[in-house]
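Last lecture ended with a question: if I hand you only a sequence, what can you say about the shape of the protein? Today we answer it with a concrete record. The protein is Orotidine 5'-phosphate decarboxylase. Below, first the input exactly as provided, then the predicted structure, then a couple of comments.
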Amino acid sequence: MEPTDAFGARLRAALHRHGSLCVGIDPHPQLLAAWGLTDDVAGLAAFADICVEAFAGRVALVKPQVAFFEAYGAAGLAVLERTVAALRAADTLVLADAKRGDIGSTMAAYARAWLGDGPLVADAVTLSPYLGFDALAPALQVARARGRGVFVLAATSNPEAIAVQQAVVGAGCTVAQSIVDAAAARNADTATLGSIGVVVGATVSDAPDLHALNGPILLPGVGYQGAGPAEVRRLAGDLPGVLPSVSRELLRAGPGVSQLQAAADRIGAAFGFLPT
Ligand SMILES: O=C(O)c1cc(=O)[nH]c(=O)n1[C@@H]1O[C@H](COP(=O)(O)O)[C@@H](O)[C@H]1O
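The predicted structure:
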């Protein structure tokens, strides 16, 4: 049985409090320019500070896209560290979108970095299972031991994914379905919402069956990639723990903090309160 301070339980409480929206912090160079910021570490830091001011304490989950920080090297990662820490200090759950996945021994190092004691540690991290779901075991173990969560890529929003993720495997189900089933098995002993989530693009037309998951479902691809409330409702049905995730469509409302907050409220309201 998972403890009450497990990620799934904490996420469920945050969804009750704030509604279902996950806000992505994706500091694209084009967005820095649109916000009147320089394409350097100072611009990145100003962008991140505005996002923290706008979203801390207001949404269920914030998802910084690690790649946009990594692009500036060690100084960019230092900005990410401060951003994650500031959000968490304000009681806002943070999902580091790092999409990690490697052989077991390297996976253990990633688990330490993102879910253990390292300076980059977040409440949850995105993982890629395409070296084999079981290769993620070290991260699942650390997540459970530390009350943290993971979101495993199942059916991603990009069109190139279809050839791999919709391929049919041994048991006659798709690769994406096998990932969801493996995640569901890890959540089976959890009474409420488990801590092993999956990622399904809101743009995906052949989504895996998510009914047995008993864990959170991140739906990126809303807004800029073309999905809207209708697609989210179709995928979400009456499933608990669904989080539509929006980055550019919301961030283009910046740099004003109140404009960003209004955009988050407006986009969040379009989905209504999804079941928890
Ligand atoms: O894991 C993700 O968040 C993710 C999975 C996926 O299937 N598709 C996808 O777009 N994402 C991420 O979600 C964000 C989408 O950004 P926008 O298209 O600007 O809303 C980016 O950070 C992507 O890396």
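Comments.
1. Residues 24, 26, 65, 97, 126, 156-157, 199, 201, 220-221, 223-225, 245-249 surround orotidine-5'-monophosphate (CB under 6 Å).
2. The radius of gyration is 17 Å.
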